Amino acid sequence: MNADEELKCMLKDLLWLNSLIATELVQITENTSAILRNGTIPASCLAEHAQLRAVALDIADRSLPGTELRKHVEKHQ
Predict the structure, then answer these.
(1) pLDDT on residue 55
(2) Are 40 and 67 in contact (CB under 8 A)?
């Protein structure tokens, strides 16, 4: 593998990892909000979080298709 291919692989890995972190942070935010609001999260926040998750998952799927991230994130919903 040449240097360009290694760099491309590394960037794909980093994009995937950042997508993982993003989806988990959204979940942490929702969990914290639910705790602070006694279980009630505003519908507008849930809708926006779903959109953010979708973008992060699309990036992850393009970067490294076939991982279990999408299945994992879908269990949160």
Answers:
(1) 95
(2) no
